[in-house]
Amino acid sequence: MSDIKLAEAPPGIEGSGFFATSFDKVIGLARSHSLWPLPFATSCCGIEFMATMGSHYDLARFGSERPSFSPRQADMLLVMGTIAKKMGPVLRQVYLQMAEPRWVIAVGACASSGGIFDTYSVLQGIDEIIPVDVYVPGCPPRPEAILTGVLKLQDLVKNESLRRRNEPEYKELMNKYGIQ
Amino acid sequence: MDHPIIAARHELTETTTLNLGPTHPATHGVFQNVLEMDGERIVSGVSTLGYIHRAFEKIAEHRPFYQITPLTDRLNYCSSPINNMGWHMTVEKLLGIQTPKRVDYLRVIVMELARISDHLICNSILGVDTGAYSGFLYLMEQREHIYEIYEEVCGARLTTNIGRIGGFERDFNDTAFAKIKKFLKNFGPVLKEFEELFNRNRIFIDRTAGVAAVDAETAMNYSWTGPILRACGVDYDVRVNEPYSSYEDFDFDIPVGTNGDIYDRYLVRQEEMWQSIRIIEQALEKVEKEPKGIFHAEVPEFYLPPKEEVYNNMEALIYHFKIVMGEIDTPKTEVYHCVEGGNGELGFYLVNDGGRSPYRLHFRRPSFINYQMYAPMSAGMLLSDAIINLSSLNVIAGELDA
Amino acid sequence: MGKISNQTVLDKLNQQFGDKISLAAEPYGLLTFETTKEDIIPILSFLKQDEELKFNFLTDITGIHYPETALPIGVIYHVHSFVNNVRVRIKVFLEEINPVIPTATVLWEGANWMERETYDFFGITFEGHPGLYRILNVDDMTVFPMRKEYPLEDPNRVDKKDFFFGR
Question: How far is A89 from chain C (nearest CA, A)?
Answer without folding.
Answer: 12
